[in-house]
């Protein structure tokens, strides 16, 4: 069996915890990691608080192959992520020449004031992560990748980061959408799950204008085994209601 | 100073970590807690894994006044939240008569099979949380509130839960939206923050078709102090660009 590659996401920001800003990064990163076979094991949102950030970061970087952070790398007083990462790793932080050059690609030299220069403060030993949108870079230190919180900028950084990660065997999935209620088919799903350990069967109920239903999702690394399990589910549920199965396993 | 009331959210579900389902509950709960003066201190997403759920739950219930969980209380084999909560508290779990009655309000007795009865398994000592949408209840054990993951059902449960919580002094906020770049005003914001400790000033950059800008948010418990700080920010930033201030502090 190949080594499992895991990741944790650390979202840093009072604005998410106050509900003012709705996080859009966790779902985006999750989907991206799944595509490349990295198993997202945890996502955590913490406030702009040094102690909390450092403690979460140290816990997560010990537990997972990679940690991806979002938020807190701008020019204002509440942007403390880079300093926290330096402290978590016990390294110095100072202005990075290469980062200043990146900022100058976008910002006229006369506008590169002290606040903007803060965005070039990078922990020693870190490798920069370029950013095509606003130029202010993210960075990588050890197994930690530090990204912006603004989704369009985070996404540009993630495109770069993903090329630097060791990736795994892509987790494939196939969904069977049904108007059957979970409670009618739970024993069948449980039995099929118990007979097939290399495929994970998840059942996700939904509720909308047309009533209740469920998406039954089969996940695994071998398409032929997923296909077999899906066929068995469809065969055993067909008398209970309508079933729509994904055309492709992907 | 009044006691601070804190909360943590524990989102339980492989489907969120795989990116298949995008979480909509954290933002909704966050906003609701802020309105009633409860300080959301952390949100965490963990997989459908007993050890991980129990460990996160025990950590969070010790750290915060309240913990709210979402997900994993349906009738299928992957719904393990209620059992995990019982284990975390070291109590028994069994079918609860009151919960069965609630299920019977929606489900005909003939359809109340073993799987559906699973939704009535409640840890001993827990108080039920009714659910107007699908009737299957959530529950409260100690300082932990267990809710469904389907947003419409979670929201119905949250309406009930919020009435059972000790609430705090509502955190008020006022936003100044500006087309000024953060990097131009960071020193001013920092200085105003340093002079005003009872108001938290957050600066949240955005990037859209019209370019960069920032939302400067002042948060605190005293509307008159927020007003004073906002007025100072507006006065000192007015020469830098366009400023739109919330009409109301709320």
**From the 3D coordinates, which CATH architecture of the largest domain in chain A would you assign?**
3-Layer(aba) Sandwich
pLDDT average of chain A, as an integer?
94
Oligomer: homodimer
The separation of the N and C termini of chain A measures 21 Å
Stretches with pLDDT under 50, minimum 5 residues of chain A: none
**Helix content estimate of chain A:** 25-40%
CATH superfamily of the largest domain in chain A: MoaB/Mog-like domain
Looking across the biggest beta sheet of chain A, what order are the strands in? 2-1-3-8-7-6
The best one-word shape of chain A is elongated
Strand count of chain A: 12
Content of β-strand of chain A: 25-35%
Task: Summarize the main sheet of chain A.
Answer: 6 strands, mixed
Q: Largest protein interface?
A: A-B, 69 and 69 residues
Task: Give the tags.
homodimer; 250 residues; alpha/beta; Molybdenum Cofactor Biosythetic Enzyme, Chain A; four-stranded antiparallel β-sheet; 26% strand
Q: How do the strands and helices of this protein lay out in sequence?
A:
2 copies of one chain form a homodimer.
Chain A: E1 6-12, H1 14-17, H2 25-35, E2 39-46, H3 50-63, E3 66-70, H4 81-89, E4 93-95, H5 97-106, H6 114-118, E5 121-123, E6 127-129, E7 138-141, E8 144-147, H7 151-162, E9 172-178, H8 182-195, E10 200-208, E11 211-220, H9 223-237, E12 243-245
Parallel strand pairs in A: 1-2, 1-3, 3-8
Antiparallel strand pairs in A: 4-5, 6-7, 7-8, 9-11, 9-12, 10-11
Helix pairs in contact in A: 2-7, 3-4, 8-9
């Amino acid at each position: 069996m190949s080594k499992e590659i895991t990741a944790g996401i650390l979202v840093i920001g009072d604005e998410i915890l106050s509900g003012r800003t709705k996080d859009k990064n966790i779902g985006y990163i999750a989907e991206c990691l799944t595509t490349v076979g990295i198993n997202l094991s945890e996502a955590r949102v913490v406030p702009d608080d040094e102690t909390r950030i450092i403690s979460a970061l140290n816990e997560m970087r010990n537990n997972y192959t990679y940690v991806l952070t979002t938020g807190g790398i701008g020019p204002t007083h509440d942007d403390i992520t880079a300093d926290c990462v330096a402290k978590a790793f016990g390294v110095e932080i100072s202005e990075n020449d290469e980062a200043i050059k990146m900022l100058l690609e976008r910002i006229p030299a006369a506008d590169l004031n002290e606040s903007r220069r803060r965005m070039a403060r990078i922990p020693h030993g870190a490798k920069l992560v370029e950013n095509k949108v606003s130029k202010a870079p993210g960075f990588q230190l050890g197994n930690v990748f530090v990204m912006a919180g603004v989704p369009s900028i985070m996404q540009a950084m993630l495109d770069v980061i993903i090329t630097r990660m060791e990736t795994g065997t892509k987790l494939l999935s196939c969904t069977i959408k049904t108007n059957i209620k979970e409670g009618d088919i739970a024993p069948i799903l449980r039995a099929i799950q118990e007979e097939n350990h290399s495929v994970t069967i998840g059942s996700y109920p939904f509720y909308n204008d047309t009533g209740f239903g469920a998406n039954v999702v089969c996940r695994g690394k071998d398409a032929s085994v997923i296909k077999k399990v899906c066929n068995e589910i469809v065969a055993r549920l067909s008398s209970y209601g309508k079933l729509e199965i994904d055309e492709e396993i992907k």
